[in-house]
Amino acid sequence: MTMVSQLQVIEVWAAVAWADGMLADAEANGLRAVIAAAELSEADRAAALRFLDRKIELPDAYLAGLSADARRGVYRAACRMAIVDHVLAAAERSLLDRLRGKLDIPADIATAIEAEVPGLTV
């Protein structure tokens, strides 16, 4: 089973935040708070902060092999990041759909996870 690092999870969240081509203040502030609270080395913290500077594409190299619980957790957090600015752009919806596929999360499970995220339209 693959272990995913906090930096890798933050990278997925950054990709969701950047999906619409811009990083809203609420998204940037949310990422900064996560980065500040995460147990990261100084090098990883600096790398994570660079995710705020430019559009991040959805990484997939480390998504395969995660446990079912880890995949659902990554998806849940991505859903929360997508709506943190209170707007779910079409590009964010599309990225969530792609992420769901990469994480091999069944549609019914994804719908249940999305229903748990306030403000996310399902």
Uncertain runs are: none
Main sheet characteristics: none
Described by its quaternary structure, the protein is single chain
Mean pLDDT: 85
Strand content: under 5%
Characteristics of this structure?
globular, mainly alpha, 122 residues
Question: What would you note in describing this structure?
Answer:
With 122 residues, this protein is an all-alpha fold. It has one domain. Helix content is 60%, strand content 0%. The protein contains 6 helices and no strands. It is globular, with a radius of gyration of 13 Å. The mean pLDDT is 85.
Quick synopsis:
The protein has 122 residues and is an all-alpha fold.
Task: Provide the fold topology.
Blueprint: H1 6-18, H2 25-37, H3 42-50, H4 68-83, H5 90-102, H6 107-115
